Structures are given as structure tokens and as C-alpha cells.
Amino acid sequence: MLQRNYCMDILLENATSYTEKSKIYALTEAEQAVVNDRMVGNLYQSALKRRDIDFGDIPNSRGDIQKFGGYENMIATVNMLKELTKKFGIKMAELNIVEDAIDNIRIQKRVFEKGYQLDIDFIKMYYQALVLACVDATTLLLASYVDFTKTVNNIDFQIKRGKGISGNICIDSLAKFNQSVKDGSFNKFADGLMSKKQENFLGAATAAAAGAKAVTAIAIGASIVPVLRTLLFYFYDAKMSVSEKLAYQKELLEMNAFRLNASSMDAQKRNKILDKQKGYMDKLEKLADRIRISDQLATKSSSNSIKQDNKQWNIANVTDNGDDFMFI
Q: Which 3 state secondary structure label does DSSP give 92?
């Protein structure tokens, strides 16, 4: 029976006849492993074409998210949002996803650090993409949910009531990562890569060699590699830098610190800082618009690019064993 996954869905979508679809549904388990392996290799090569991403100083943290320069502000931002949602009685499911992802990346420090030590390209890129997704998602939550109101002696924060930002690529990708950590598939996949000290999804599987362990490993790859590809496509089309997004978090946190401490300041100092904060507020409102628009444009553009890229594969060219079918 055909095991549906991201790879098989691409081939079924591209099948132009009943005969072609029948061939896919008729694949044996071993044959599915071969097709999945080759498709995962295709997807990985597709992702590599968009690896020229501005990751800021994330690569310098080498697998330890707590060494990332933006980590403390990101955690403070998450905590501030949690306090505001509690204050206004608003549920923010997306925030839970981001917080869980940050925790999971931190908990998986051993895996990511070892990936850097062994120079496993996939693990390094996956780590960088996940951390950047956390930065993007946290910043987008701020831009989408937090509103400002001016008072005589302060600038107050409010949480907007709306439909949220479900469907965001970064948040959806982080949710998939969280699930892969929960069900153990991420660790199985990463351990497989590191045990061989190489990427083990290069399209070299044959039906005869596809044993039970290989079938399982390939199936896991078919769920994890598309997450990296989706994120790289999104980041490639995004128009805002990591530093801009981190600056947004930092300035908003400074505004929040003033908001909390305003009552204990003398009037002269409070008014002086308040004038500065009002300038921040105007700047942040404009930046929030840019962040939301950038996300919408990058989501639309990258989704269209992925759909177009997917059209190049069909069951005929994926199962071709000629010299022209070879993964790099």
C-alpha cells in the first residue's frame, strides 16, 4: 500500500494520466523507499540552491542557541508576550509553538553541536534555519499582536484581538520540528547522518538494498528535509535582515522596561524618556508594517516558487536509472 508523504504527493500531483498514477500506487514498499530516497535528494539539492541566506551571527553559535547573540532578547520577548496575553486574557497558540521550538533547539544542543564538529552540512543548515525561524516568528508575533496607546505619563501596551497569524511558514515549520522531536524522528534522522558522517539521502538507494531500517530512515527524511527546503525558500525571498528584526525586539523591550518602571521615576526623568519613547513608538509602528508586509510577500513568493519547482519531477524521471539521473 502506498505510504503518502510530501514526496509522493508531489509525484501524484504531477501525474498527468490514470496510468501514471496507477504506477505510483502500485509501488512496493522497497520501490517506495527508492523513490522517496531520490525525491529527498532532489528536494535537498533544490534547497541548496537557496542557501545564500543572511543568518546574521547564528552560525557563530555552532549549535548552541544560548550562544546566539539574539537569544536573551528573544527569550525576553517571549516572556513579555506571555505576560501580556495573560493580562488581556488572550490565547496565542503560535507563541506556545515558538517557545517549545526554542526549548527543543536548546535541548538538542548535543545533536547540533556534534553536527558542527563532524561538519554535517544538513544539520548545520537545519539548525541555522530553525533559529532564524524562531527570530522571524517572535518578531512577527510582536508586529501582529502588540499595539501601543499613549497616555499622559506612559506608553501602554495592548494585545490586539484578531485571527492570529496561523499559516505562517516559520511557525508551521517550527511546529513540524517540535513534532519530530516529540516522536523521536529528528533524533533518528540526525543520528543516522552523524553515524555515517555524511548526508545519507543522496538518491543512491536501490530496491534490493532498501531494508527495513533504510525504509524507515528514508521515510523520516521525506518529512524533515522538506521543512528545511521550505524555510530556505522563505528566507531567500524575505526582504528584511536578521539585525532589523532583532533591533525591533530590542527597542520594544526597552519601551516595555520604561512602561514598567515609569511610576517609580521622578517627573523630569519620566517626561524626558517618554519623549524618546514616543519617537520609538512611531518608528516601531512603521517597522511593524514592514515586517507584516515582508512576511506576506515572502510567503506568497516562496510558496509559488516551491510549487513551480515541484513541477519538474514525475515518476518517470525519478525512476529513470540512466546516466542522466544522478545526485551530486
A: coil
* Cβ 237 vs Cβ 305: under 8 Å: yes
Count of CB atoms situated within 10 Å of the CB of 241: 11
Residue 163 has pLDDT above 70, yes or no: no
- Higher per-residue pLDDT: 138 or 284: 138
User: Half-sphere exposure (CA, 13 Å, Cβ side) for 322?
Assistant: 5
Closest CA to 142 of 242, 2, 9, 292: 292
For range 214-238, the mean pLDDT: 86
Q: What CA–CA distance (Å, rounded) separates 50 from 53?
A: 7
Rounded to an integer, the average pLDDT of 96-113 is: 97
Q: Which long-range CB contacts under 8 A does 201-206 form with residues at least 24 apart?
A: 201/37, 201/40, 201/41, 201/44, 201/225, 202/41, 202/327, 203/37, 203/38, 203/40, 203/41, 203/42, 203/326, 203/327, 204/37, 204/327, 205/33, 205/34, 205/37, 205/38, 206/34
CA distance 302 to 159: 29
Please tell me the distance from the alpha carbon of residue 122 to that of residue 116, in angstroms, as a whole number: 10
Instruction: Read off the pLDDT of each residue in 146-175 and give the average, rounded to a whole number.
Output: 69
Name the pTM for this structure: 0.86
The residue that leads in pLDDT, 192 or 200, is: 192
The rounded distance, in Å, linking the Cα atoms of 100 and 178 is 7
Give me the pLDDT at residue 1, please. Answer: 83
**SS3 of residue 316 by DSSP:** helix
* The pLDDT of residue 283 is above 60: yes
Name the phi and psi angles at 150, rounded to 5.
-85, 135
Give the Cα separation of 270 and 56 in Å (integer).
35
